[in-house]
Amino acid sequence: MKQAVEVKPVQETFPPGAGPVQHTSGERAATTPSEKIGRVLEVLRGRIAPQERFASAPRPSLPLGLEVLDSALPGHGLKTGALHEVLPAGHGDFAAGIGFGICLLARLLRERPGKILWVVPNHMANREAALYPPGLAALGLDPNRMIQVEARKPIDVLWALEEGLSHAPLAAVAGLLPDKARAYDFAASRRLGLRAARHGVTALLMRDRHACAENTAAETRWSVSTLPSHTLYPGQAGPGAPHWRLQLLKCRQGLSRRLSQHWDVEWDHETLSFRLPAPLANRAADHAHWQRDASRRWAEAS
């Protein structure tokens, strides 16, 4: 008399570090494609985890001294140990972008010791990117805390910035990129951001106005346009405090671009903070008085 025997498949086990043996076509493979993908993902997670731990380390925020600006930023201020970008809004706003970046650095130096690494292309070192020590001092930044490095190519500028971010005693690194610098892309910005987060050094990158829509790993992206300054002495002609129109084009975990508006701000070199300009109505009488005085002096000279 024959009996039916139920045959159950036996699951093979392997010692640690050993792989599956070769099976014939009629046997079931011990490792499925999904399991192989899972193993690859685990290896990649293990390699990325150290960098992600550095990137997620909490860093203090730098208040800018103006409530409308600080409320639009996560942490109620500009995040330190991160990458930030500054762009001119128009063709003639390059100097305004540099001036705004210099004021951000002056604000940062008030809160943190160390020096600033200033990296520029050598063909811009004696023109747009030339540092004027009396001008820096007028904005509240000590020229003795600036270290200037000139590079031949945009890729050399990025290399110097990345190396500077590895030096924790520095307060910040700042660099200028010429128009349409192809060496700067998302991967390059990601490297700068991770290096800044790892060592706690803030990175500031000033770019051309055509980069407003590019995708990078920067924490914030500012658009700066110049506005006429107002005289410091009522009734007299002369330059006043720096006056800009700011727009926050990008902010991670903060105010989105769709909801952001422009802010007209001035820089106070005494308190090293941004402020709102005085109402326009208060300047009308001063401007009229200045016009009458100028007309009178012109008539006397004639």
Descriptive notes:
The protein is of the alpha/beta class and about 300 residues long. It has one domain (about 60-280): P-loop containing nucleotide triphosphate hydrolases (Rossmann fold), CATH 3.40.50. It is about 30% helix and about 20% strand. It is built from seven helices and eleven strands. It has helices at about 35-55, 65-70, 95-110, 135-140, 155-165, 185-200, 285-300, and strands at about 60, 80, 85-90, 115-120, 145-150, 170-175, 200-205, 220-225, 245-250, 265-270, 275. The chain has a nine-stranded mixed sheet, with helices on both faces. The chain has a two-stranded antiparallel sheet with strand order 1-2. A hairpin with a 4-residue loop joins strand 10 and strand 11. Helix 1 packs across helix 6 and helix 5 (about 155-165) packs parallel to helix 6. It starts with about 30 loop residues before the first helix and ends with a helix. Mean pLDDT is about 80; it is low at about 25-30 and about 280-285.
